[in-house]
Each structure stands twice: as C-alpha cells, then as structure tokens.
UniProtKB/TrEMBL annotation:
Every Cytochrome c domain range: 106-205, 320-451
Gene behind this protein: pbrT
Molecular function, one GO term: heme binding
SUPFAM superfamilies in UniProt: Cytochrome c (SSF46626)
Organism name: Rhodopirellula baltica (strain DSM 10527 / NCIMB 13988 / SH1)
Domain of life of the native organism: Bacteria
Protein name: Probable PbrT protein-possibly cytochrome c
Biased composition (Basic and acidic residues): 239-250
C-alpha cells in the first residue's frame, strides 16, 4: 500500500547523524523568529478537527471557534502562559509552576543575573513548534519526526503504555537525549532551566489534549454542528463575578456598581450588597471536567513495576537464558522477528504507521499514498505520511534506553503511539497466549546480546570455575 514512499532515501539524508536537516531548517526559519519583535501564537489543531469532521460527518468550525476561546482563557498565550488554578484542586495546582512557565515561554532573553527566559523558543520550538505540535521549521527534515505533545502520548517512559510519563522520565530524556534520533542531550543546560522546560512541556501537552478532547465532546455530546448548541450546552467559561451582573427573582439585572445603574433598573446600596454566585452552565462544567481529568492523569502516573530479574549464577546460565530468548524472539507468541528480523537485523517490510499519522489517514478511511485525500490535512499542518521503521536491534542502539528494566517494560507494555504491542504477562498464559516473567527476562538478555557483544545483567555474573569469566564476557556490575 505504501510502495511509493521513499523512506530509506529520506532517512539517509536527514537521519540523526546528518547535519543536512539543520541547514535546511535554518533556511526555513522566518526572519526574526523568536525575537522580541515577533508575536508567537498557538495554532489551532485543525488536523484533529478535520479528522473529526470526516469521521463524524459533522462540520467542526463552530466547535473549533468555541474551543479556541476556552483554551485561550485556560492557558493564555505563548508570550503569557497561564495555569488554570481556579479550576483545579489539590496536587493539580502544583503540577507545574507558573513562574517556571513564564521563564520557559516567550522570546529569548536573559537579565543581569543571568536568568534565561524564552527557553522553549531557544531550545525546542525549531523542532516541536510553538504549540508542541511537532511541526517546527526543522521537523520535515528529521527522522523520525519530532514528538507531537498535544495527543498526550509519549513513547519513552517507565510507566505503563497508556499512562503519562513521570517527571523523572522527562528529566532523563532532557539529560540524555534520545540515541538514534535527532533529539539531543540538554545536559549542558542548567538544571533549573531544564526543570522549567519540563513544566512547559507538561503544560503544552495538557493544553493540547484538553483542546482535542473538548473538540470531540463538542461534536459527540453537546450537539455542535454548523452552529453552536443552546447557551447551557455551549463550551464557555463563566465571566468573573465583577463583569457578569446577577439578576433578581424577576430576572432584572442587579448592578452592584452604581456607575452601571439606570432609572429602569433597581439600585443596590453597596453596604447591603451580597456576593452573587455565578451559576455554571453544563458546557462550562464539562470543560472543567475535561481539564481536571487530563491534569489528573499526570498526577496519577506511576512507575510500572518490574518483576525481580533472575540473575544468572554463572556464565553458562546467562548463555542458556540468551538461547531461550532467541527461541522466543522467533516464536509465534512473542514474534519479535516478524518486525525486527530473525536476528534483530531489521529491514522487514512493515506497511504500518504511527498513531499520529493514522489519525488523519487509515483511521478515517484515507490511504496515505492518496495525495489528493491527504492534501487538505497537509495544508492544515500535518506532516507527510511515512512508514514506521521497526528498530534494528543487531548492533544498533535502543532509543528508550538499554537498562534491563527498561527493556523489560518495552516488551511487557509495548511502545505507545506505535504498532509495537505489549504481551500478556502471567504464569498461566505461558506457552499459549502470553509469556511468563522469566520468558521476558530471557528476551531481555537476548536483546542485550544483539545490541552489544554480551548483555549486562543488573549485577555481576559469577562463575566459580573461572573467577575471571565475568570480566572476560564484558558483564558489568
């Protein structure tokens, strides 16, 4: 289906070790981009709106217009971001720091005390874009594309597949970069600046996911079509009490500011005035519920537990584990070889896409190679569809990390946003529909043996017959 894609050619020209994409991106940057005389704006997620419109057969312009207003009121602008504390509770209030958001946002500058501002513009916007869409000026020239934060889906993390990453996960990504991709290490950036970037990344992801969910709710549940629904169902946030006048039992407006009074309306003495509660509409309650739900997922995320690794007691036990892993690797249940090749060398034909691309193609009945069908989405900001390439394990690098526990989680939970599946992990499923924890550890040892000459278990392998065996095999503690 995707035979016309020139994935290999693009990958070789703009791969992670090529500087051609940097040169091309520099040529694409508008004059003054990120400087104080330019105004940055969050672009609407028109690609998602168009995908909803096609799949639901309902126009989305009215919904998009109201969602834009709600999102702007909740999250502010790239120059002046806000955190919607008025609508959050408990730990949600402290998920990000408004001070750090302000440090990361806006134009690039520093003060006399060497406090840097505009950190996201300086370090991230060229690839990830102003709104975190992954469509910055350099995005077209990278393989793989930069991450689109707005869907709330992250690949490299210690949490379960559908969970958000932990803050430590994001911290490690900034410190180490992503090997085998254009994502560099930011270890030379000051730790406090990295923390500000983490806050801003979380902010962009939450902002984008709330936008996406509100668009879907507007179409699916609130009755948005060519025009908005009635006022009670319309997605809007209530105005502040100071600017929204209350009404008496007869429906007459009560002016609490005497300057607003008229002879036709009753006046209220300021000394006798009573604070009037603004009644929330159904649309506002839904908007706040969506916000709290998305923020709550970031609060609730935890590190996925990993069963204790059965450390081989001797070198021959390690090699036996590797042999069992090799058999599982090519077996029908794990079937790793189906994508990664019989010996992890890659190169297997896989006509599949990542989830970000499927959203505007196969999931709504569009063939990725149908240029005419894809063209409207490209105009709305989508990047050209590309076939996803399973990782070459033999002699390669693992983008998400090569620690034993990390590889275990990759096998158990799969990789979010990609066709890489997880496995059913239980003793009862062994040999039928799933794997045992011991099976997965055998696979871990085999994968490590492919990536490097010998694997590295968590602790040193002992061999009573040959005390030097551990050092000779390269196994480290």
């Amino acid at each position: 289906m995707f035979d016309s894609f020139s994935s290999a050619r693009i990958s070789s020209l703009f791969g992670p070790h090529s500087r051609l994409w940097l040169l091309a991106a520099a040529c694409c940057l508008p004059v003054g981009f990120g400087c104080s005389d330019s105004t940055m704006e969050f672009e609407s997620n028109r690609v998602h709106a168009m995908a909803l419109e096609r799949s639901r057969d309902v126009p989305t312009d009215a919904a998009l217009a109201d969602v834009e207003l709600v999102i702007a009121e909740l999250f502010g602008t790239p120059e002046e971001p806000t955190w919607p504390s008025d609508h959050l509770t408990g730990e949600q209030l402290e998920l990000v720091s408004l001070e750090r958001l302000q440090q990361a946002s806006g134009s690039v500058e520093s003060d006399a005390e060497n406090v840097h501002r505009g950190l996201y513009t300086e370090h991230c916007v060229i690839c990830h874009g102003v709104s975190g869409s992954g469509t910055g000026p350099a995005s077209m020239y990278q393989w793989p594309y930069p991450r689109d934060f707005r869907a709330g889906v992250f690949k490299w993390k210690s949490s379960e597949r559908d969970a958000k990453p932990t803050r430590d996960d994001l911290r490690r990504l900034l410190e180490n970069g992503i090997p085998g991709s254009p994502m560099p290490s930011f270890a030379t950036v000051a730790p406090e600046d990295r923390e500000a970037l983490i806050d801003y990344l979380i902010y962009l992801s939450i902002r984008g996911e709330v936008e996406r969910q509100l668009l879907a709710v507007a179409i699916d549940d609130l009755g948005y079509e060519e025009t908005p629904p009635n006022d009670d169902l319309r997605l809007r946030l209530a105005s502040s009490k100071e600017s929204d006048p209350g009404k008496d039992e007869a429906g007459n407006i009560i002016f609490t500011d005497l300057n607003q009074s008229s002879r036709d309306e009753p006046q209220v003495d300021e000394s006798d005035s009573v604070e009037i509660d603004v009644v929330s509409t159904e649309g506002e309650l839904i908007a706040i519920s969506v916000l709290q739900s998305v923020v709550g997922e970031w609060i609730e995320t935890t590190v996925a537990p990993v069963p204790t690794e059965p450390i081989p007691g001797a070198a021959d036990e390690l090699h036996a584990s590797i042999a069992r892993g090799a058999k599982l690797f090519g077996g029908q249940i794990a079937n790793c070889a189906g994508c990664h090749g019989p010996e992890g060398q890659g190169g297997m034909p896989l006509n599949d896409l990542d989830d970000w691309t499927k959203e505007f193609t196969t999931r709504i009945g569009i063939t990725p190679t149908d240029a005419d069908a894809v063209k409207p989405f490209r105009k709305a900001g989508a990047l050209p569809p590309r076939i996803i390439q399973p990782r070459r394990l033999s002699g390669g690098v693992l983008r998400g990390g090569d620690e034993p526990e990390t590889i275990f989680r990759r096998i158990q939970h799969g990789i979010a946003g990609t066709p890489m599946p997880g496995v059913d992990l239980s003793e009862s499923a062994a040999g039928t529909t799933g794997l045992t924890p011991g099976d997965v550890w055998d696979l871990v040892h085999y994968v490590q043996s492919l990536v490097q000459p010998t694997p590295k278990p968590s602790v040193r392998v002992a061999d009573d017959k040959n005390p030097l065996a551990a050092a000779e095999t390269g196994v480290s503690s």
